[in-house]
Task: inverse folding
């Protein structure tokens, strides 16, 4: 998956890219809460970074978890607040 490919990279440059990489490492280890928190932090601080890549990663995790998963419900509301409030 995209998360595993990103997690395998070793030469990461820039604060946002490093934080994105760390979130991908969480996701690749199936530490979904930590991954979602890290991605959401990026969305809040740098919403347009790399063509909204962090927001897209959150949506990808929602698809992985499924619409009825508790983390999807919890973080969908947080993502909406970060993007629209």
Result:
């Amino acid at each position: 998956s995209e998360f595993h490919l990103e997690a395998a990279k070793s030469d990461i440059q820039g604060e946002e890219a490093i934080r994105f990489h760390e979130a991908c490492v969480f996701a690749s280890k199936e530490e979904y809460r930590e991954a979602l928190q890290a991605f959401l932090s990026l969305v809040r601080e740098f919403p347009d970074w790399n063509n909204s890549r962090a927001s897209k990663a959150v949506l990808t995790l929602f698809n992985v978890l499924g619409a009825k998963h508790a983390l999807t419900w919890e973080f969908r509301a947080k993502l909406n607040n970060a993007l629209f409030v």
Observations:
- The mean pLDDT is 93.
